[in-house]
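Aim 2 progress update. The chain analyzed this quarter is reproduced below.
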Amino acid sequence: MKSSEGQGEDRGGAVGTLSIGALAARFGLATHVLRHWESMGLLAPGRDTGGRRRYGADDLTRVATILILKEAGLGLTTIRSLSATVDRDARHEILRPAAEELRSRIAAAQASLELIEDGLDCTYEDVTQCPNYRRLIAERTSTRVRPESG
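Predicted structure tokens:
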């Protein structure tokens, strides 16, 4: 590892900080991802005397937080808005749509899992003949708007 990528004081860097390469490697990210997050206002690393980014403990926490929120399905713009507020009502306004979106995705995933499990449990040679498959198809086709007869 290059001395400029590890922890400690290196090439004018602050003690206990990480270079962009070291921080990116720690989280399995590409360095351009951290630069993008910085351009969006999600990160604000310090700089050493040479102008190189230096990341401290607060930056590690922020990167971990961004990754957790992304895994929860939040976009970077939403994460930026969320990190910019300390107001409970504003936080709720930001998170409500995200929660509803996640509920919808969970419901869709559960329906998909049900279809797959029904296919695994089906004893028919042709899965389209299974009662659960036929029920799901009937539910799907009955909720569609039917074309007008002319």
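Helices lie at 20-27, 31-39, 57-71, 76-83, 88-121, 131-142. Confidence is low (pLDDT under 50) at residues 1-12. These observations will guide the mutagenesis experiments scheduled for the next reporting period.
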